[in-house]
Design a protein that fits this description.
The complex is a heterodimer.
Chain A: H1 15-45, H2 53-60, H3 68-100, H4 113-127, H5 132-154, H6 161-184, H7 191-198, H8 207-226, H9 228-234, H10 238-243, H11 248-270, H12 276-288, H13 295-315, H14 323-345
Helix pairs in contact in A: 1-3, 1-13, 2-3, 3-8, 3-11, 3-12, 3-13, 4-5, 4-6, 4-11, 5-6, 5-11, 8-11, 12-13, 13-14
Chain B: H1 19-42, H2 50-57, H3 64-97, H4 109-123, H5 129-152, H6 160-182, H7 186-189, H8 192-197, H9 205-224, H10 226-232, H11 236-241, H12 246-268, H13 274-286, H14 290-315, H15 323-341
Helix pairs in contact in B: 1-3, 1-14, 2-3, 3-9, 3-12, 3-13, 3-14, 4-5, 4-6, 4-12, 5-6, 5-12, 9-12, 10-14, 13-14
The chains are: A mainly alpha, B mainly alpha.
């Protein structure tokens, strides 16, 4: 994650080594993509009842299959698509923030951006009973506002990582309590609905939720990927990046807006699925190794995490867990481990 | 009052307060507490006249109003006791760790107590109320130890921001474990909100009685540690030079703080930020001498939590806002303010 392409000195880099790194990266991305497709297919086929691949494909092609049309077409397909799309959004946006702020803890779900989107989405749905599109718009605006607020509050003779993260944690404590309040004011207290806005859940997913997430992904992913090289350069510090010809401020603003947009739209649909944005980047960096942009791998890892966690949450345990609880339990130990490791190596967070 | 006998170290100079000022603030603090307690009895989803409050306190419960007051009495007492415990334990934690960001909520201690209780109830069939308290205190102690160890790893020891980060991360981690344990169990999911948010609704004198012995021991230990905390504030070497057994008093005071916040969490759930806001405010009012600061923190903590409870009942009529939500809304901006004031050197 920390060795971007730009660091390669133009004359001394061995062409063979570079080719090896690139082919390894291609292989990893391909493997991840295959795994995501396999997980998608798996969640479509398996469940309370099993449907063979032939039925699933016929349903996707629009044919009427007794039983399968409802179970696969109306229940499992939107849920799986939403899981993959939301996971990709969280992973991609998370790693963007982590790269830009040069800190694995600076992911949007820790510094309060997801909490802001979630609080406003809960308010828009529970209190104002708005439709899906308006909710997404509200969530995006709230996410941007929180990002701006955290950045402004953290700015004092420059932005220091630890200060930004702690301020984000403070903001997210406030926003979470707003969410709790909004939920306690709802007409009936529904634990499942509450869990969606507190930890994220895919229960009751339908196309109204999946399509906006897919649309945001289709628009914003190219924006982020186009900036991936500039983003890597900015990891070396703003001065170096501008010496390399990157327009730092413009890149930063574009990237923040795009990443917050992804996070907010996905949050408005599935809630702030706990720790996916935080986990995907480091996992992707580990499997890809140095020598390439971690953006796409992190998105794929995010998809895979959400798909698998949702499937496990539904069927692996005696009770049905919302996906956010499963990813929360996965992410919690890693969060603590990360703090221990950073403190021990004496790095400044 | 005792200032003539005890020579105060020079570091307190900027915050020196005369005994008169302190006595005045003490009086104001007591009046404030009395006022919020009265408000807590009178206001709620149904407001009650003072004459009814008075006769209900005398034992009458003939009318609906008087019955309402009778129901509000244990709740008020609980808010006072829990607020005092949290304010005091935050003050002791700030003194023991010499860290302006210390608070039982921020350092993950309250969430540790919650996790311990929830785990014991779900997996080990814990059902005795006294057992709750023991388990909560054990969980609080373990997580305090854990967070302090994690926060003091590496270069520079336990700097305020490192400790706060370790605490916040641990707290977030524990919170998601609590959800995972609680959610699928319908039998305890009903009280889920209590464990996640923190509140003093549903108080009864029985429940207060179960935690009272623990709280009393905690209050005693904490209030008596004022002198030791004053010495610790000078730094470990100087404190040892003054004849203080540094490790011992630090452990003892920390134990008192853990007793308080563990017992408070056992009965009211994890309430954050009270232990942060209160000691800082008190320091502005009465200076940095812990012998004054500690009782004042208890007093102001009690007033703050009771007031938050009243506001929560009045604002959201006919339902209510849990105090945990209100204290987060009040406390988090304060937390951000203190984080911003920390110098980059301390990062």
């Amino acid at each position: 994650m920390s060795v971007p392409l730009v660091t390669r000195p133009p004359s001394t880099g061995s062409a063979a080594g570079r080719a090896r790194r690139i082919s390894r990266r291609r292989l990893v991305v391909l493997t991840l993509a295959v795994l995501v497709v396999a997980a998608l297919a798996g969640t479509l086929m398996f469940g309370q009842t099993f449907y063979p691949p032939r039925d699933v494909i016929r349903v996707i092609l629009g044919e009427q299959v007794p039983g399968a049309s409802f179970t696969v077409g109306r229940l499992r397909l939107p849920r799986a698509v939403l899981a993959a799309a939301a996971g990709f959004s969280f992973g991609l946006a998370g790693v963007t923030f982590q790269t830009m702020l040069r800190n694995p803890l600076a992911s949007p779900d820790i510094i309060g951006i997801s909490s802001g989107a979630s609080a406003v989405a809960a308010m828009a749905i529970v209190t104002l009973s708005l439709g899906r599109t308006e909710v997404s718009v509200f969530a995006v605006v709230a996410g941007l506002a929180v990002a701006l607020l955290v950045y402004t509050l953290a700015f004092r003779d420059g932005v220091v990582g630890t200060r930004l993260i702690l301020i984000g944690i403070g903001i997210s404590a406030m926003l979470d309590s707003v969410t709790s309040y909004v939920l306690s004011q709802a007409a009936e207290w529904d634990l499942q609905e509450a869990m969606r806005w507190l930890t994220g859940s895919l229960n009751g997913a339908d196309w109204d939720q999946a399509l906006p997430t897919l649309a945001a992904l289709a628009v914003l992913t190219p924006v982020l990927l186009a900036r991936s090289r500039d983003l890597s350069a900015m990891q070396l510090g703003d001065d170096t990046a501008s010496a390399l010809g990157v327009r730092v401020e413009r890149t930063r603003i574009t990237v923040i807006v795009a990443a917050v947009g992804l996070i907010a739209v996905a949050t408005a649909a599935a809630g702030p699925i706990a720790f996916v944005a935080f986990l995907s980047g480091p996992i992707a960096a580990r499997v890809v190794g140095p020598g390439g942009s971690p953006l796409v791998p992190a998105g794929l890892v995010g998809s895979l995490l959400v798909l698998v966690a949702d499937f496990c949450g539904q069927f692996a345990f005696g009770a049905r867990y919302p996906v956010g609880v499963v990813t929360g339990v996965l992410g919690a130990p890693y969060l603590v481990y990360l703090i221990i490791r950073t403190n021990r190596t004496g790095g400044s967070l | 009052m005792t200032r003539t006998e005890t020579r105060r170290p020079p570091y307190t100079a900027p915050a020196r307060r005369t005994a008169g000022t302190r006595a005045l603030w003490l009086l104001i603090g007591l009046l404030l507490l009395a006022a919020v307690m009265a408000a807590s009895l009178a206001f709620g989803s149904r407001d009650v006249g003072w004459s009814d409050v008075w006769s209900a306190l005398g034992g009458a419960d003939a009318s609906l109003e008087q019955a309402a007051v009778t129901k509000r009495v244990p709740r008020t007492v609980l808010a006072v006791v829990i607020g005092a415990a949290l304010g005091l334990s935050g003050c002791v934690m700030q003194g023991v760790t010499r860290n302006p960001l210390a608070d039982p909520g921020i350092l993950g201690v309250n969430m540790g107590a919650s996790l311990a209780v929830v785990t014991a109830v779900a997996f080990f069939g814990l059902s005795s109320p006294t057992g709750y308290v023991w388990v909560a205190i054990a969980g609080a102690a373990l997580s305090a130890l854990f967070v302090y160890t994690v926060g003091s790893l590496g270069r520079g020891g336990a700097t305020p921001l490192k400790l706060a980060l370790a605490g916040a991360a641990t707290s977030a981690a524990f919170a998601s474990l609590v959800s995972a344990v609680v959610l699928p169990r319908n039998d305890i999911a009903g009280s889920f909100r209590l464990w996640q948010i923190g509140g003093v609704g549903g108080a009864s004198f029985d429940r207060i009685g179960q935690v009272l012995p623990f709280l009393l021991v905690g209050f005693a230990v904490c209030l008596l540690s004022g002198r030791a905390l004053n010495s610790l504030a000078l730094g470990d070497e100087l404190a040892a030079g003054l004849g203080e057994r540094v490790a011992f008093v630090r452990a003892l005071a920390a134990l008192g703080a853990v007793l308080l916040c563990g017992a408070a969490t056992a009965v009211a759930g994890p309430i954050a930020f009270v232990g942060l806001v209160v000691p800082h405010t008190c320091r502005l009012l009465v200076g940095v001498d812990h012998r004054w600061l500690l009782p004042f923190s208890a007093l102001l903590g009690a007033s703050l939590l009771t007031a938050a409870d009243v506001v929560g009942r009045v604002v959201a009529r006919p339902s209510e806002i849990d105090v945990g939500i209100l204290t987060a809304l009040i406390g988090a901006p304060f937390f951000i303010y203190i984080v911003r004031r920390q110098k980059v050197r301390a990062l």
